[in-house]
Fold this sequence. Notes:
Blueprint: H1 16-21, H2 24-31, E1 41-44, E2 50-54, E3 63-67, E4 74-80, E5 83-90, H3 93-104, H4 109-115, E6 119-120, H5 123-130, H6 132-147, H7 154-164, H8 167-170, E7 173-177, E8 180-184, E9 197-200, E10 206-209, E11 216-220, H9 223-231
Antiparallel strand pairs: 1-2, 2-3, 3-4, 4-5, 5-6, 7-8, 9-10, 10-11
Amino acid sequence: MRSLSRGEDLSEQLYPDLIAAGSLARALRQSLPSGGGTGLDVRDHIGRWSAVVTGGTAERGDFRVYIGADERAFGVAGWSRGVMLIGGSTAELADVGGAAQSWHAGARLEELHRQFPFLEVTSLALAHQRGPADAVAEQWRGLREGWGRDDRFRFVVDLIDAAHAAPQLRQLYVYTSHTSLHFSTCTGFPYSQDVPYIDPRTEGGYVVRNAADREPVGAADDAERAVALLVGQLPPDLGPAAAGTADPSAC
């Protein structure tokens, strides 16, 4: 689904209800169960044709809604502590309102998918629901599996395997940016910048860099030595990744 961009005209044929209401937020508010009297706050997000639904619980963050440009479609994304846990699209605005209400009521992800099949829930999202330790383990598994599908990136797989073998790194949330391997003490985005990362070199080997300023710490010819170099830079009291983001109030 191609979402409507800012400044792009809204189709009267596809969205007469939104045009009549004056904005997506107003139309969505009217579609909520009990006429919007649910304790939810619905407001414009980026212009009149996208919206965000917020509630009163810290565990459930923004429920964002945007619209399709070429067909009638409402795309949604439910965020919690820096992680998008649900997403999907539907042509029915009433379903969006019902899903937003259930999301902020704290329905579990499996129940949300059962109630509203257009909502997609990944194995990583379910792991985040179980807790940060499961999210970390599933992220490592999925990252290894994803990079392992392409033989051209064997050097990235070698790096992931070497890092996973180090207990100090295995407890952290891992992710890649291009082909570099990063680690975070938080499981949500934005990630922390307090752990060095490893950057493969085009000519071979790896460079360990500080996350905050990208300055090199040292270089190594193979993945195992690069990981050992990084581990030597870690504080001794580094603990497992916690749920939340790099915002100190959340993580």
